Amino acid sequence: FILRNDLRKAIEREELSIVYQPRVDIETGKVRNAEALLRWNHPNWGPVSPAEFIPLAEESGDIMAFGDWILKSVCLQNKAWQQAGYAPIQISVNFSAQQFLQKDLVGSIQQILKETELGPEWLEIEITESTILGNEEIITRTLNQLRKWGIRISIDDFGTGYSSLSYLMRFPVHTIKIDRSFISDISKDASHSQTLISSIISLAHGLHMSVVAEGVETEEQLDFLKKYQCDEAQGYLYSPPVPAAEFEAFLVPAL
Ligand code: G
Ligand code: G
Ligand code: MN
Ligand code: NA
């Protein structure tokens, strides 16, 4: 496949880039976190969605090289923003199952943090429910090690799998990101989603976890989330994912 060969060379040909989407504290309006998302600009075909090429990279094993490149780029960028005098933010990076299950994951993350001189508290790792399934023991061990080192962890696309909420909430994570499919259903009166969202929030808070709503697009959705004390919101209402230079508009000077 042409695409697969192209993918392998995408890093060295500098066709990959990273965009950042702000996560906003609903109470204060402050941006404390950004999600990093990978972009591939193919020389002939233009932008290729990560939903298409990440699965390819997983099949071919290229995801490991991609993962290292993303993590290092994000940590360098975050360190550069801190050194430029901006108030520090956390940056969240998506990890696929293969990446998360790699041998010595903790060691390789620590190596990158050391090289880039970024404090571990400014890195968040997003894993999905499907990554957890079938790998509970090793995942729990890895999550505990990452936590011990001060790295933050969130469960992405929360609610889309088949696990029960109480089961999922046993995992030692800091944050739960409610999938955008539930957020887009909020406006439908008395919807199942409304009940689910408010239940997730109160369960999570009871376990000292914070909650992020993904895909927030309207004021109406934001009002609902505010009413139920959701902690943070991310979505087109604030901004789509944007290149680093554009993201600086969301940063404020450190005191
Ligand atoms: O950016 P976009 O909204 O098109 O992302 C589509 C999907 O690709 C999302 O599910 C997202 O989690 C995934 N994705 C985006 N960037 C990365 C990345 O750097 N690593 C991994 N593993 N997945 C990513
Ligand atoms: O699966 P994950 O949460 O990692 O992927 C994030 C995806 O959601 C990215 O593809 C991003 O572009 C997309 N996204 C971010 N905000 C919104 C939004 O408000 N609405 C919609 N439809 N998609 C969004
Ligand atoms: Mn994500
Ligand atoms: Na998601």
From TrEMBL:
Q: Which residues form the EAL domain?
A: 1-255
Subcellular location as annotated: Cytoplasm
The organism's place on the tree of life at top rank: Bacteria
Record's protein name: EAL domain-containing protein
